[in-house]
Amino acid sequence: MPLAARVEQALEAAVSLAAAPGAPPGLSAAIRYAVFPGGARVRPQLCLAVASACGDDNPDLADAAAAAIEFLHCASLVHDDLPCFDNADLRRGKLSVHAKYNEPLALLAGDALIVMAFETLARAGVASPLRLAPLIATIARGVGAPHGIVAGQAWESEPNPPVETYHAAKTGALFVAACMSGAVAAGADAGPWRALGEHLGAAYQVADDLLDAVSSAEDCGKPTGRDAALQRPSAVAELGMKGALARLQSHVLGAVESIPPCAGAKSLRDLVRMQAVRLAPKQLARSVA
After folding, report:
1. Amino acid 233: pLDDT
2. Cα–Cα distance between 110 and 34 in angstroms, integer?
């Protein structure tokens, strides 16, 4: 089964459980709205790609890890859009969850997605208890304090946050978790995969900074110009357009070169290059091809 199809199947199975009879209908609807239709599902596909490169001897656990990564990503988007943070009414080309429903339901939907991520891991990990604990720890480190995406959001409330630390937490941590959890789910050493996640996370953050600076909300599917409006640190503000593009190219190359020797190395390199081109602003895409 193609990686994208595996991701969607795992997400659908877990979301359906949350909409069981007796569940609050508004919450169930908000959860589904937050997850479907999704974006490119890069993080969960990356998780599965690494698992495949490591042998993928436990596809159910790998699927659960991929779904957990995506649920946590979706939760971060729901919370990021709330009025207390970015106050954004658009996400993935449609109304954000709080704009579609209301602020309380959006907050609860994000909370439910976080819990759902770890419940999904627990269900699949019953058959592989020795892998479950390190898998939970790997993913939790990418989400919580002191260096996960929650910490990344918290840095936005600090004066003059250190740019690299802020970006590593806000974006890079979940990419690292995606790569390393794919290896853990397949029973492999996760250490060699950290660099791939770090480079990809940094590349995606720079690409997002470029998109925010030069693209339209229609092209991005979300509000743009937010970094400047909210006075947040960005690669564009730090380095200028040319410098940010050079950093993006450097991290894409670093990601490609960091892939350990494995049977799926070529497919992973192709995935990295394809996503780099997709994320860069259209007028800059050729520069990172």
Report:
1. 77
2. 8
Measured in whole angstroms, the distance separating CA 242 from the mean position of its chain's CA atoms is 26
Please, what is the end-to-end C-alpha distance for the chain in angstroms?
27
C-alpha span between 92 and 34 (Å, rounded): 10
pTM for the model stands at 0.91
Give the mean pLDDT of the chain: 91
Domains, the chain, in order of start with CATH, read 3-288 (1.10.600.10)
Cα angle 170-254-277, degrees, rounded to a multiple of 5: 75
Q: Which helix (H) or strand (E) holds 165?
A: helix 163-167
Find out whether 172 and 201 touch, Cβ atoms under 8 Å: yes
Which whole-number Å values give the CA distances from 83 to 69, 72, 96, 153, 224, in the listed order?
A: 24, 19, 11, 14, 16
CA-based nearest residue to 177, from 222, 227, 122, 118 = 118
Residue 222 DSSP one-character state: S
